[in-house]
Write a structure and sequence with these properties.
By secondary structure, this protein is mainly beta. The chain has no helices and 15 strands. The chain is elongated and about 80 Å long.
C-alpha cells in the first residue's frame, strides 16, 4: 500500500504523488492500493494528488461505512483493477479511467470529473507535469492547498487537477496600432482601421 489510513482523526494529503509501487524485494508490486482508507472514526481528505500504477488507486476498505473519504483535484491512473473503488464519499474535479463497486456493493460518488487522458509530460517516466493543451489545466476547484508539489503557487485562478500547476497557454498575435512604409518616392502611413493599396515597381 502506498498510504494506509487506519487511524482516528483527520488525515490531509495535499499536493502529493504516489507511484511506482515496489515490494521489499525491490520488484514492482501491483497488488495493493495507492491510498487506502479504513477506519470508522477517520476522515481522509485528499487534494491535488496523483496516484499511478497500483492495483487500485483511491480505495475505501470493503464498502463499509468507514468514516469520510474525500478526494478533490486529483488523478488516478493505470490501476490494474480500478482507479476508484469502494465508498468514496466524494471524488470531484479529478481524472480517472475506471471506477468500481466492491463486493459489498458500495460505489464511489463521482462529480465534475473526467475519464479523458490528462496528458502528463512523460507518464512512463513518472513525470506528472501537464502538457500544453491538457484539459486538467485550471480544471480543479478552489479551497485546497496554496502550493503544488514543487512548492510553487498555482498559476491560474482555478487550480489544476493533479499535483503540478501549469499556466494556460493563450495564442495571441501582437496588433500594431500603426505601420509606416517608407520608400524613395513616398511615405505611406497606415493607422488602425484603415487600408491602402500599395504597388511596387520591379
Amino acid at each position: 500500500v502506498g498510504i494506509y489510513n487506519s487511524a482516528t482523526g483527520t488525515l490531509n494529503i495535499y499536493s502529493s504523488k504516489v507511484y511506482n509501487p515496489t515490494c521489499h524485494s525491490g520488484t514492482t508490486c501491483r497488488n495493493c492500493a495507492g491510498i487506502h482508507h479504513t477506519n470508522n472514526s477517520a476522515t481522509t481528505n485528499i487534494w491535488n494528488t496523483v496516484v499511478d500504477g497500483f492495483k487500485t488507486g483511491f480505495d475505501e476498505c470493503a464498502g463499509y461505512a468507514y468514516g469520510t473519504f474525500n478526494v478533490k483535484n486529483s488523478i488516478a491512473r493505470n490501476s490494474t483493477t480500478a482507479d476508484l473503488i469502494g465508498k468514496i464519499n466524494s471524488f470531484s474535479y479529478g481524472f480517472y479511467s475506471t471506477s468500481s463497486a466492491n463486493g459489498y456493493g458500495s460505489s464511489p460518488t463521482i462529480s465534475n470529473s473526467s475519464t479523458s487522458d490528462p496528458l502528463f509530460v512523460n507518464e512512463g517516466s513518472d513525470d506528472f507535469h501537464l502538457q500544453d493543451g491538457s484539459t486538467a489545466i485550471a480544471y480543479g476547484t478552489t479551497g485546497g492547498p496554496a502550493f503544488d508539489f514543487s512548492n510553487a503557487s498555482w498559476p491560474n485562478a482555478t487550480p489544476e487537477a493533479g499535483c503540478y500547476g501549469k499556466s494556460a497557454v493563450t495564442n495571441t498575435l501582437p496588433v500594431a496600432s500603426s505601420v509606416s512604409i517608407d520608400s524613395a518616392a513616398a511615405s505611406i502611413n497606415l493607422t488602425e482601421g484603415t487600408t491602402k493599396s500599395v504597388s511596387c515597381a520591379a
